[in-house]
Amino acid sequence: MKIPFKKDPSEFKQRALFATNVFDLLPSDHQCYVYEDIFEQLDTSSVEEQFSVHGQNAFHPRLITGILIYAYSQGVFSSRDIEKRCHEDLGFMFISHCNCPNFRVLSDFRKDNYAFFKECFKQSVLLAMAAGMASLGHVSLDGSKFKASTSKHKAMSYGRLKAKEKELIEEIEDLIAKAAKCDKEEDDKLQDKNGYEIPEELKIKEKRLAKIKEAKDALEKREQVLNPGKKIDDKKQISFADKEARIMGKNGNFDYSYNGQISVDEDNQIIVGQHLSQNPNDKREVDPALEDIKETTGDLPDEMSLDNGYMSGNNLESFDGKEIDVYIATGKGEKKDQRSIEDSNRKIKKPDFNYDEGKDCFVCPAGHTLKLKAETSDGKKVYQGHKAKCDLCPYMVRCCSSKKGEPRTIHSDDKEPLRQKMREKMEQESSKEIYKKRKKIVEPVFGQIKNTGFRGFSLRGCEKVSGEFSLACAVHNFRKIVKAIVSGKVCLESRELAPTVA
Q: Is the pLDDT of residue 17 over 90?
């Protein structure tokens, strides 16, 4: 049986009292018309299956999805503000077919259908590729922090959680004892009190204790996954509002955030892959990024460029064996320091040491060898120089930082050969020229997303936040598609996108 969704009201297409449609007041090239044509192509069947033929007719999922996408494209993210604009703004009224849902309907749809927005993002990518706007020739991957729907003031450290839990337990036990004593007292001793003051206070403290225990348990589970078997540092924090958010930031500016990762195609800055991470850095983000690109497009890029934050053994291993020409910056600031070691006072760092794969050792700038000292079962390795040679080395002050006078030590792993190959590759002029594309491809996209006002999430919890991030990335792609249609680079014929024939 076909599900009877709500129909558009007669006012949407009716011309009454005067020979003009209210939407004729909009410019003929207004973007809302293009958005409407694109929204007609969205497949919302997976959401439609959730509805029943029984009960009151519901708003069609395609209508609500279109309203949310258009609202995000205009920098409107609050469900209440979206509802308001649908009653006041002609563009919003056209997209909503003069039939705007209540703000709670919009909010619940966004909150409950986070998995669908991943589908929505995929559809935006496939539409762009069908229009010839993305080819996977060169893709750049980057990450940026987006604020979680919480704050540092709604958080507590592990040490404070334990202390507060103990304090509340003692207070509750004391209140229970007092309540029991009050029950035995005579009514005339209560005077104008009714005997309910202590139980009410007890109820409040029990609620606080439950929240404390819930946050403490969540922190312990998180740390067990991140650092199994290790004692939890009392300084570790967790947010009461969003327990899955993490403290992230730099230069002293730290807040609860998520790490949004996007893979952007060179042709028209179309996002062809995206995922949300709880990791504060990018050292393990290549594998999920490649999986998402493959899942979304069915293929992998020919070339990829990434900044120095991705220069880790895990990421390099993710690329190993794949037919992708990869370019990763091997030094801070995306350039190798060209200053001579002899002519500078800078600290001598690990990149200044050359790795000899055949002998499995490092060679320092002075030509001395750091031999393998220790190796663990998980592939971690420790290399150390000879004390006598380090003591006599002219670079010792800038190279050896041990307060005990120990020779220089380098920590690495079994993936050092991959790092060395990338360093050698990035020293070539041709590689540097290809890598320069990265700044023009991916960095402006984060600027475009954040300049619309999307700098933080409205939802809480990693799964729901991931859905909202998928929505934001889909909106970026739809904005690019609409701009291409308006400018004539892409044509829209019979509701099918295609490149404009020159």
A: no
Question: Which residues contact residue 108 at a Cβ distance below 8 angstroms, ignoring those fewer than 6 apart?
Answer: none
Residue 256 and residue 264: Cα distance in Å, rounded? 25
**Strand 237-239 relative to strand 369-375: parallel, antiparallel, unpaired?**
unpaired
CB-CB contact of 149 with 257 (8 Å): no
Q: Which two tokens stand for residue 72?
A: 């995000």
Nearest to 212 by CA among 171, 152, 158, 150: 158
DSSP letter assigned to residue 456: B
Domain map (residue ranges) of the chain: 10-134+464-499, 152-239, 256-335+423-451, 350-417
What's the pLDDT tens digit per position in 366-425?
A: 999 999 999 988 888 999 999 999 999 999 989 998 888 899 999 998 888 999 899 899
The SS3 call for residue 450 is: helix
Which residue reads 């497949």 in tokens? Answer: 43
Vertex 483, ends 482 and 489: CA angle to 5°?
100
Which DSSP category does 350 fall into?
Answer: G
Q: Is residue 141 within 8 Å of 498, Cβ to Cβ?
A: no
φ/ψ of residue 282, rounded to 5: -105, 20
172 touches 209 (CB < 8 A): yes
Lowest mean pLDDT among 17-31, 206-220, 312-326, 429-443: 17-31
The reported pTM is 0.85
Phi, psi torsion values for 145, nearest 5 degrees: -90, 135
From CA 339, how far away is CA 331, in angstroms rounded? Answer: 13
